[in-house]
What we know:
This protein has 357 residues and is α/β, with parallel strands linked by helices.
Amino acid sequence: MANNQKIRIAIAGVGNCASSLIQGIEYYKNQEITYGLMHKSIGGYAPSDIEVVGALDVDARKVGTELSEAIKSAPNCAAIFADVPQTGVRVVKGEVLDGVAPHMKDRFQVDEDQEPVNVVDYLKSVQPDFLMCYLPVGSEKAARFYADAAIAAGVGFINAIPVFICSTPEYDKKFAEAGLVCAGDDIKSQFGATFLNRLLVEHMIERGFSIDNLYQLNVGGNTDFENMIDESRLSSKRISKTSAVKTVFDNYELKAEPSLRIGPSDYVPHLNDTKVCYINVRGKQFGDVPFELELKLTVQDSPNSAGVMMDVIRMLKVAKDRGRTGTVQEISSYGFKHPAVNVTETEVTKRIEAFLH
């Protein structure tokens, strides 16, 4: 049954992931075949029911620009796969805080003469259901600032980046006490390195293989990877990606703890928004005979996360409609690498199907 309501979202950080999501909303409006989507309808909400009503960024090339143009502005390099008409939304300047890394100041053009808006007042004026945090990795202070602003404005929160907010008891309680929902942290791609790695580990162990060591290395050329050149901004990301895979091991009795190395490894500019993942797994099979798996996955990074986010937005609106408050754990486990409750992908599927029905 179709739902006549719109799901109103505001976006903090109009980068590549925001570009893919906004294009996807337009692309799937008139598609009979919904290839590329995991769920055509969630609680009666279609992708076209998502409406962007507000947008914040700090780059002078985007601030003041119509959102349909801002998503194509440098340094964005995501694939253009839909012609987005004018949205009626102009990007406003948000707070910089630690959102721009020192080594990225030449890549992001911040005009100090442009005054940032009062974020709480702005959110109250555009009245979104949810504020989406799409800030660069390592924006610890900025992410918490926007989470607090969402609470003050009476707005739900979706945290797409590896800053631990929705997965903490502190913010779960804050959002619950405010009567708001949230989901996070660190968006999981539709079929990306973390999802694939989790599936491999889960089914290898279930089929009786033991795993001695594993590495997952990712390279890419967008600003996300460039931003992570600074290891200090990468620590939460590495924790998030590692815990997502380690949790699968924790669900089984193992002879010994395997050696893991997981996380982004290099920035390769000419790759642009292409992400290349290398997974290597070594261990023992029947009779303690050694095996080795070597796997390579190449995807467009930003569209790969947009499909999951399109589900998360609609699921969180269903949770809001049902009167849920605080961190919605089923959605967080489904859509994010670092939820408070991290279970196997098989268990995630069971829990999200129970939530949807």
